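Changelog-adjacent note: as of this version, every example in the card shows the full chain rather than a window. The one below runs 259 residues end to end.
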Amino acid sequence: MKKLLWGTILLALGIVVPIPTMAQIDIHINIPLPPPIVFAAPPGVIVLPDTDDVYVDPDLDVDLYFWNGWWWRPWQGRWYRSHYYDRGWGYYDNIPGFYFDVDPGWRGYYRNRDWHGHRWNYERIPERRLRQNWGTWHNDRHWERRGTWGVQNYRPRPQREREEFRQQREREYHQRPEVQRYERQYQQKPEVQRHEQDYEKRPEVRQEQQQRHEKPGVQRHEQDYEKRPEVRQEQRQREQPQDSQSQGRPEGGREEHRR
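Full-length structure tokens:
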């Protein structure tokens, strides 16, 4: 009788709770969420030059980005994202694809209104306007083509030069103390790898990943990221049992907790 009762309960859960949600319940269960950011008013952002439409709030002491329809923030070597700038943060099991395009010195350039020797007439964009227009701006390459991000007499960096900067910033990122601490903690949890490997082999997860990669425009840098030799090598290493695993995996991470 008890077995029948438990079977009925589990069946009901399977109907009410989507399978991908159930699959995520026991992964990264101990990863904390970042403290909330308090806003007196909705943020105003600027778009960063030499990026694929990466926006940032320059008034905060912490990094808060907007990209591809999400708000993003790093904390203690990990990444979190939300559809809202002030709530709903979920742990993101990856490094977002835009991040290594961001010039680490952007705050100084912002204060001086100077982008690598060129006058930078950046525009403050209210959160509401951003939310309404970011997709159209992205598809039209609005900031790069029409305004060169507000930088006077500026030519975008060639793709090869941008890629070299990305690789350099990626190396510097993994040398940060907070990132190294997180990576060491992550490597000490081999059961996390097994959970992730089992998760990624599920048919419904493979189907979801395929649908994500079929979206045009905003997802194209995910494909470029996954084609890199160092990323392919890391993917092969992750498939080996008990292998160490860093946070720098290809785009397509999963959210596990929300606040």
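Structural remarks: Strands lie at 44-47, 55-56, 65-67, 70-75, 78-82, 90-92, 114-115, 118-119, 125-126, 255-258.
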